[in-house]
Design brief:
Blueprint lengths: L10 E3 L8 E3 L15 H50 L3 H13 L7 H4 L2 H38 L12 E6 L22 E2 L3 E2 L6 E3 L1 E4 L2 E4 L3 E14 L9 E9 L6 E9 L8 E14 L4 E6 L13 E7 L2
Length: 327
């Protein structure tokens, strides 16, 4: 039997490739209205949307490019105006840059007369000097504040810095002496006749006295740390004018230095001869002396006098001390 021709409005299937996609048959057919089941009206809507999609994408890309170009142009104009403003505010910047280049090209140890002849270079040097001074002052101020805070917190928390970090120093005040002591005692060595009385009693822990990194024992100061020490002493003599057993009012004070296993060596000697009025009950005179000496660890210092007629009632009048100087 011969195959029947397809009627109008039917679909044909393609036999090539085994595709089952429906194809419209040739010939006129009715034009049904678009419906929800995906008829011909739906197909025409999809084609319209496909034609609009690339157009909107091109418009968006062009808008983004326009914004970028406008931003770049604005930044360029802004930086150009800023640079022009800086140039107008600092007309000598080119000259200062030339000074810095010349200074950089100068060989080490060469003369700077060429730079000093330019007023711009001198002004630049003054500006740099002032800036360095300001920075240095700020650094020192911050360091001082930091050190003060550290010291405050250590003190408030009961932490006392170690004594070894402090400079050695001592200040002793006089105590009443025994009038029977003799300066020729073996432990003080051979003393001269004019300074034969060694002072063996000093206060070292009162309001007027202190010890720091120096030891004291039986009238002697013992050096613990070597260095240059300023050694000083003052004795306030109180001589009785009538009935004095001494041959005369000769006032002598000596500061003795005794290295380990050695005899005392005279460091300083102060002498005074006074004549007081016959009707005066007492004659008062103070002798002071001091000097700088290089001392080693283990060295000892003590004071000897010509007479023990001394005023013992004033702690601020007679004293003996030493402190190290970092020179």
């Amino acid at each position: 039997m011969a195959p029947h021709p397809p009627s109008a409005g039917h679909y044909l299937r393609s036999d090539s490739g085994g595709s089952e996609a429906p194809m419209l048959a040739e010939g006129p057919g009715p034009g049904p209205a678009p419906g929800p089941d995906g008829g011909p009206g739906a197909v025409r809507g999809q084609r319209r949307r496909r034609r609009c999609g690339p157009l909107w994408g091109s418009v968006a890309v062009m808008a983004i490019l326009a914004v970028q170009i406008a931003s770049t142009t604005g930044l360029f104009v802004y930086f150009t105006m800023a640079i022009s403003k800086l140039k107008s505010q600092a007309p000598g910047s080119a000259e200062e840059l030339r000074c810095l280049q010349m200074l950089n090209q100068q060989p080490e140890g060469s003369s700077l007369e060429e730079l000093s002849s330019s007023q711009t270079c001198l002004k630049l040097a003054s500006t740099i000097k002032a800036y360095v001074a300001t920075v240095t002052e700020n650094i020192l101020r911050r360091s001082a504040v930091k050190e003060a805070r550290r010291s405050y917190f250590n003190t408030s928390e009961g932490q006392v810095p170690p004594k070894t970090a402090r400079k050695p120093s001592a200040h002793l005040t006089l105590r009443p002496q025994s009038l029977t002591q003799d300066g020729t005692w073996e432990r003080f060595g051979n003393l001269s006749q004019s300074c034969r009385h060694a002072i063996t009693r000093w206060e070292h822990s009162t309001l007027h006295s202190h010890l720091q990194n120096i030891t004291y024992r039986d009238g002697r100061l013992r050096v613990e740390q070597p260095g240059k020490y300023y050694v000083y002493s003052q004795i306030y003599f109180r001589y009785r004018s009538a009935g004095a057993q001494d041959s005369g009012p000769q006032l002598v004070q000596c500061i003795q230095w005794q290295p380990p296993h050695s005899q005392p060596i005279l460091l300083l000697k102060g002498v005074g001869t006074k004549c007081w009025a016959p009707e005066a009950d007492y004659g008062l005179h103070a002798l002071y002396q001091g000097g700088l000496f290089e001392l080693k660890a283990g060295d000892e210092l003590f004071v000897s006098v010509s007479s023990l007629a001394i005023d013992y009632n004033d702690a601020a009048a007679s004293y003996f001390g030493a402190f190290r100087l970092d020179l």
